[in-house]
Amino acid sequence: MRLTHTAAVLSLVMSASLLAGCSGDGGDDPGKGESSPTAGSDSPASDPSSTEQDPGAIVKKCRATVTVTGTETAEWQGPAEVRLAGNGPKAVYRTQDAKRMVTAYSSGKDFQPSVNFVAGDTTFSTKPGDPAGLDIGTKGKAAEIDADAFDVDGRQVHVTASFDC
Length: 165
Description:
165 residues; mainly beta; 10 strands; 12% helix
């Protein structure tokens, strides 16, 4: 049980750090394939995903399509990003719309693939160690998600998302 709690906390921390380090104009042109080192980003120095923690991290712009059904519902398509790093998951894909966000973590050293869906103050996560429905590329090119996720009260959503970077 301790490993499950640790994995959930790590997923939440990584989601929050990605959200804090995000910047962009939100325009229609996602700059597909464009990448830039994190050192040039507007992320605050206190951001755990800053270059102090991983100076080799690269952020690329993507496009995403998301559908969520179940306890919460959502549907959107638009800009997304993928962060490639050497620590934890090899690639972290993220897209958001209003107060909803999907974050997909690829496998990495001592890290199993997982997905979080955040709606307001509620976070739904896939079961730790269960990669069913998670085809999350480690090279930052694409991710396909078709999986169930749960909040701490056991409520369920089904997340279908596609990232093209």
